[in-house]
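#struct-help
A.M.: can someone run this one for me? Single chain, 100 residues.
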Amino acid sequence: MLTIAASLMSGCGVYTFSGSTLPAHLKTVDIPLFANRTVQPGVAESITQGVSQSLVGSALLRVVPSGGDATISGTVTAYSNQPYTYGSTEFRQVNVSSYS
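D.P.: on it. C-alpha cells below:
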C-alpha cells in the first residue's frame, strides 16, 4: 500500500485519533495536499482526502483550510496495487474484488 497511508492509518495496527491522546489545546487542523513522489497520478489527492475524511468522521478536530492549531502534512513515496481478494468465474479469467 502507500507508505504514507501505512504510516498514518495502519502502522503497527489501526491508528485512531482519540480524545485521550490529543492535547486539549488542539481544536482545528489543516491538511495541505500531500506531495506525490510516485508515478501514479492522483494518489496524493486520494490520500489527503482520506486523512481529512477520517478526521471529520472522528469529530475530534475540525478541519480548516489553513491556520489550524496543528498541521498534518506528508509525502507519498511509494504506490502498489496488489490483489487482496479474487475469484474465478471461468477458465483463465480472474476477477479481483478488492486490492490491498
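A.M.: thanks! The beta strands are 28-30, 35-36, 62-63, 70-71, 75-76, 83-90, 93-99.
D.P.: also worth noting: The CA atoms of residues 20 and 48 lie 24 Å apart.
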